User: Fold these one by one.
Assistant:
Number 1:
Amino acid sequence: MFELLGRQEALARSQKIIAAAVLGGMLVFSDWLVLAGAVYLFLGIEPRGRSIERINRALHVSATVPRAAPVARA
């Protein structure tokens, strides 16, 4: 009988440990979810009906367009 009581206590302890581990895991997951949302809000590019190819071309063209030299005025 004492052996059975010891097993029940061990089972109750292991269930508490599992619940704490699941809670910790969900907190880590929610932290990453909030971080991903913040990155999307600050760095996300809105397509506004444009295709990915068109956005890519626009980004590459704006990066390679030479800028005109400033004109010296007399």
Note: The chain has a mean pLDDT of 79.
Number 2:
Amino acid sequence: MDLRMAINNKSNVTRLPEKRIESEKDCAICLDGIVVGQLASCTPCDHVFHKRCIDFWLEKSRSCPLCRNDLPAS
């Protein structure tokens, strides 16, 4: 991948809304717990992940890591 393509892909990374977690969940990317009260990124298909985990994932893929639904570009 050339530099222009990498920059373009990074600038089009989807921005996901965040929500405060009300019951303990695990991030399916890193497998660590998401603590009650912590902010987590939420996909349109209602899956939640640590923000840093899903941001890293979305730099490489435009689909949900769990169900593979396409995620809209920002």
Note: The CA atoms of residues 38 and 52 lie 13 Å apart.
